[in-house]
Structure formats: C-alpha cells, structure tokens
Design a protein that fits this description.
five-stranded mixed sheet, 6 helices
Length: about 200
Amino acid sequence: MIKRYNNKILVCGIDEAGRGALSGPVTVSAVILPKEYYNPEIKDSKKLSPKKRIELFHIIKKIALDYAIIDVDNQKIDDLNILKATYYGMNKSIENLKIKSSIYLIDGNKFQPKMKINHKCIIGGDNIFQSIAAASILAKVHRDNYMKKIDKIYPQFDWKNNKGYGTKIHIDKINQYGLCQFHRNSFKIKSKQLSIKI
C-alpha cells in the first residue's frame, strides 16, 4: 500500500515520464502535498487507468501546496544524454517550486542536485510513497497530452497511442518515413538497432 513518507514535515516527491521513449520529451514533475493529506487512490501512474490518472491529475494540482512540471525536449536529450537530461529536468523542477521542502524524494537510484538539498533516492519510489506517486501522475498525464498534440503534426507515428515508445507500429513507421524533428537521434533507433527492448 502507498504511504506517506512523513506527515510532520513538508515532503517533495519527484518523478519522470518518457525516459525510455524514442520521441518527445522526458517530463519531470515535483510535487509538495499538504503534510496531513492522504489519498489511497494515488499510486504509481503505471498502475492506474488513463481515466483515473486524469482524474487524479486534476485533484493533485488542486490540493498540492506547490508543484512544477518540466518538459526536457528531445534536442536537449540528444545534447546531454538521457540520464543527464533527466537530472536537468529534476533540478529545473526543484528550482521552479516556490516552497522549500524539508526533504526531496527522488524516484530512482541516482540524482545529481545543483543545489545543496536534503534528498533521498528511492528505487521504485512511485510504488512506495504518495508524494512520488503524485509526481508520477502529473508527469505522465502532462507528457501524454503533449504527445497527443504533436501526434496531430505527425499522425503517421501513432503517438496518440504509443506516446513515443518503441512499439512495432512506431518502429515500422520510422523505417518507412525516417526520423522527424521530435525523435531522439541519440537513441540510434534506425536500421538493425530498432530491436531494442524498452
């Protein structure tokens, strides 16, 4: 069951969406929920239906003391590499918060903060702590909406359904049409390397 990290202090949860996609941004969210707030429906975004994610997206944005959502585009990913681009987005999300948190909980095993902050990396944190799960929902829904918008520009890649991930249809269409301005060139997703597992 998802739980609160500590209901006596302000806790900021940070998570990302789209790290393994072949196109579009990696989206990072940071969320500070009220100390005493608990919603048992908030959980890892991957375990929620699209309808429930959208419902919770609006609830979290309304109830949160503060939140930030940052899109790090595919060009930045190509310039930095996906790991550094994710760190960049995490740092930007923290910088964009108006409220300082007592601790910053990062989903994953590593983080390189730009500033001196009290932080903790938690593997699978979006399935353990409510604040990280809330961040995962904001990042996922925001990014899905972004992918649906750019799907209208390049409908041949089926982004409204695959959200930029390496489905067979997406890869087949890359082979047919080539890469576009929203693809991550550094992921080497053409020719024989298209068989990568994500």
